[in-house]
Design goal:
Helices cover 60% and strands 9% of the residues. The chain has 37 helices and 14 strands. It is elongated and about 110 Å long. The structure holds guanosine-5'-diphosphate and magnesium ion. The site of magnesium ion has 4 residues, from helix 6.
Length: 835
């Protein structure tokens, strides 16, 4: 029977996990191992994915993935597959005997003596996603990193320092991993950090509320023989669930100090640091060995002998215990295989290894990878059986909220209600402070305008710098409010549920449920939306998602639509607007499928997502989160946007033509003399001067660099029916979409303020032969062009920052602009054929 066939509410036992590679490995690590009890709890509203309880925590799994897991309804059935279960009595004494065969089990750890005299301790925080590493890191080092009740929040490592009892600690917050296999970038990163940075002590943060699964990583660290302290975090949750844990006994079983902590309240942190100092001071560490059972131990021993025969010099530089190398090689770890391949005796070692793998398969009737995983879980289960009491109560709070938010009928409406509130708050509420900021910027501009002498410097400060900076900070209120909501969703645990219910729909375009939130946020502003993609674990999904976010029509494009729709098709305004939004979504979906079929063929990780218990977010964590993101927005986006606005200002302002200016001044002077001699009234004078100023502005724009560029690209834009003015407006819209309107304001009316008159002008605009510039086809093509080509420089910078790839950002520019051109071309040309 397959796990996917398990009815809601039923229990079964896992007998086998099929599939291969990273996919299968991840399932095993997450606790889907032979003999384990699994319960189907709930279907998502669209029947996929499914929520399962395993090892006392909850995960979601797609139906297509659950098919890979074979189950049996009978406990005994599964148990009989379980060879040599390891009981607590077997260790640690047994393991000590095992060690008598000569392999080393005492390693004095490498320490930089120079650093030692300064009493500095390098500490690395390691643990599963969501175990509370960042919380502890922030508390201990006084930093403000973002925590979240949602997997994959910390993507890169952060460093902080603190002093305690005369020691200086350097803390590193590493990305969360479920194991140290070499499959995901995070796992490789963490492993590399341990081997290359050689932290003096590792703090393994373990979530006590899902101890069994969390301790899997611990077993891998034990194999690596690194000095370590375990922080049993979330101890409050363990106690609330009515269980008791004899952590002292467990600690002596595995010979690693364990300190219970409650990261949220800072309990246990000083003790944790003291334990770290103790471990640091030990000259030699005693490491237990995970007993892998008769068959595997035999193979490990044979591999060790094989390595001994080639001499330890060959692998001494790897900084790993020999036992670890042998275990990983038997497991088929790609990183170790690569290292071995570089050895002169590689053939000898690989042929021996392959023989042993066949031997293991034959005797245990399962592949070595599962055999090792099972043994590790057996080791943990044995230890916990004696020390951790069974869970007596399930958290009613989490159960109740989950029945509501993932309900067949209520789930979606509730989610959309939440999104609607989030949107209204972000963009409606955000409009007030936005207005204040705009007002402030304007006052500042006026202040400078009235107090500086005319000239390029004044224009640079007023239009380039103040205008540019203003354009950046007006979005700040929106971003702050948006992140208030996102922080709440992430920290409470709701974000994981949103991904859970949306997964089936997103899967249709080859994405993950987690991609939905960034896409929705894109309707507000693409920049924070692209930044939000970092919560997507899978790299390929992350890259695709950030690439398609720009097709979500952001709020800056709305004013452009509104201007054109109200000028040309006021009677169908809402229909056209809706159509534009829908078309953007369509393009995003098609693009995602296309990328999935070409650049990112395979999803490297399965959709096993932890559904953490709901936790009330603390005010501090929400404020930290908001602050973090907002300042990041200012820091990262501010610079490039400022530069872009200055460049575009420069291109529009220069070259200045003094002769032409003088000619216009002369004309105005002429009119002034006419008025002085009463030939015309003062109203007539005003009109005439305004007319001249308009011509002056237009002619200046036309002759400026940007005007020249516009004319230069006009041949390219001609097939779309666009003249040079439209081209220039689109060009300046690269800085930000609102600029399209102000540029058109200047080009078409000489007055960027008056929108009423701009609408009229647009309708009246015609070529010298009298035919109108804005035919229905040109308007349609223009609106689509604005929708599709990349929203602004800031979003491109954001893509570059998040993907760590200039090429990807550049590709986004080319793809979106090319596509915009192509679609506008189709509309104009095909339309002309038909009409
Ligand atoms: P990380 O992924 O390991 O960095 O985990 P985080 O530090 O982001 O924490 C995950 C969630 O657990 C956050 O919502 C924290 O507020 C919460 N949390 C952290 N420590 C504790 C704790 O000891 N008890 C409880 N109940 N919650 C905690
Ligand atoms: Mg973290």
């Amino acid at each position: 029977m397959r796990l996917s066939e398990l009815q809601t509410g039923q229990k079964a036992y896992i007998t086998k996990v099929n599939g291969s590679g990273a996919f299968r490995k991840r399932l095993l690590e997450m606790g889907f191992v032979r003999g384990e009890e699994v319960k189907s709890i709930l279907n998502a509203p669209l029947k996929d994915p499914i929520k399962y309880a395993i090892m006392e925590y909850e995960v979601s799994l797609r139906r297509s993935e659950a098919v890979m897991i074979e189950i049996s309804m009978l406990a005994g059935d599964a148990q009989k597959y379980r060879e040599e279960p390891i009981s607590a009595e077997q260790y640690p004494s047994d393991t000590d005997e095992d060690n008598n065969d000569g392999t080393e089990h005492r390693i004095s750890h490498h320490r930089n003596d120079g650093l030692h005299s300064e009493k500095r301790i390098k500490v690395a925080l390691l643990g599963n996603p969501n175990s509370g590493k960042t919380t502890i890191f922030n508390l201990a080092s006084g930093a403000h990193e973002h925590v979240g009740n949602y997997g994959g929040v910390t993507v890169d490592s952060k460093e902080g320092t603190l002093r305690h009892n005369g020691y200086k600690f350097t803390l590193v917050d590493l990305p969360g991993t479920y194991s140290l296999s070499a499959y995901t970038p995070e796992e490789l990163f963490v492993r590399k950090h341990i081997l290359e940075e050689k932290p003096d002590v590792i703090v393994n943060v373990v979530s006590a509320s899902a101890a069994e699964r969390n301790l899997y990583l611990t077993t891998e660290l034990i194999d690596l023989q690194v000095p370590m302290v375990i922080a049993m975090n979330m101890y409050d949750e363990l106690e609330e669930s009515g269980r008791t844990f004899d952590h002292e006994t467990f600690s002596s079983l595995i010979n690693i100090p364990i300190v219970p902590t409650v990261g949220k309240r800072g309990e246990g942190i000083p003790r944790l640091l003291e334990k770290v100092i103790e471990v640091y001071k030990e000259e030699e560490h005693d490491y237990v060995q995970i007993p892998y059972g008769r068959v595997l131990e035999k193979s490990i021993g044979i591999m060790e002998r094989e390595f001994n025969s080639i001499g330890s010099a060959a692998y001494a530089g790897w900084n790993m215990p020999l036992r670890y190398i042998c275990i990983k090689l038997l497991e088929g770890d790609s990183d170790i295989e690569k290292r071995v391949r570089a050895l002169a005796q590689q053939e000898q070692i690989f042929s021996r290894r392959d023989k042993e793998r066949v031997y293991i398969e034959k005797l245990l009737r399962e592949d070595p990878e599962s055999a090792f995983t099972n043994a590790r879980y057996g080791f943990i289960a044995g230890g916990l059986k004696e020390t951790l009491t069974e869970k007596t109560l399930f958290s009613d709070k989490t159960k109740l909220i989950d029945t509501l938010v993932t309900h067949k009928y209520i789930g979606f409406p509730l989610f959309f209600l939440f999104l609607w509130v989030m949107f209204e708050a972000t963009f409606r509420l955000g409009n007030y402070p936005m207005g204040w900021i705009e007002w402030l910027v304007e006052q500042l501009g006026n202040l400078v305008r009235n107090n500086m002498s005319e000239g390029p410097l004044k224009a640079l400060i007023v239009d380039g710098i103040i205008g540019g900076v203003g354009g950046v900070i007006v979005f700040l209120p929106n971003i702050v409010i948006l992140y208030l909501f996102i922080a709440f969703m992430e920290d409470s645990g709701y974000m994981a549920r949103a991904a859970f219910i949306m997964d089936k729909l997103m899967h249709r375009i080859g994405l993950h449920g987690k991609s939905f939130i960034p896409l929705i946020m894109g309707f507000g502003c693409n920049v924070p939306a692209i930044m939000a993609t970092r919560t997507i674990e899978s790299r390929s999904s992350r890259m695709i998602t950030m690439f398609i976010v720009p097709f979500m029509s952001c709020s800056a494009r709305l004013p452009v639509y509104i201007l054109f729709v109200s000028a040309f098709v006021p009677q169908y305004a809402s229909l056209v607007l809706l159509g534009l939004y829908a078309f953007g979504i369509l393009i995003a979906a098609v693009t995602a499928r296309l990328l999935r079929k070409t650049a990112f063929k395979e999803e490297e990780t399965p959709f096993v997502m932890e559904l953490p218990p709901y936790r009330m977010p603390t005010r501090k964590s929400i404020v930290t989160h908001m602050w973090d993101r907002s300042s990041q927005y200012l820091r990262k986006m501010g610079g490039p946007i400022l530069v872009a606005s200055i460049v575009i200002w420069f291109l529009g302002y220069f070259p200045q033509n003094e002769e032409r200016d003088a000619a216009f001044d002369q004309e105005i002077a002429l009119i002034d003399t006419q008025q002085a001699s009463n030939e015309i009234s003062s109203e007539e004078r005003e009109d005439l001067v305004a007319e001249i100023e308009h011509i002056r502005n237009t002619s200046h724009q036309e002759n400026s660099y940007i005007g020249n560029i516009g004319k230069f690209i006009e041949p390219v834009m001609r097939p779309l029916g666009f003249d040079w003015k439209i081209s220039v407006s689109l060009l300046s819209g690269m800085a930000a979409k609102e600029i399209v309107i102000s540029t058109m304001g200047v080009l078409y009316t000489g007055d960027s303020e008056n929108q009423q008159s701009l609408q009229h002008r647009l309708r009246a605009e015609s070529y010298s032969n009298g035919s109108p510039v804005f035919t229905p086809l040109v308007v349609a093509g223009f609106l689509l062009f604005v929708l599709i080509y990349f929203p602004c420089v800031a979003s491109i910078v954001a893509i570059k920052e998040e993907s760590h790839s200039w090429q990807w950002a550049l590709f986004s520019v080319l793809y979106s602009t090319g596509l915009a051109w192509f679609i506008a071309f189709l509309v104009y040309q095909v339309g002309n054929l038909l009409i």
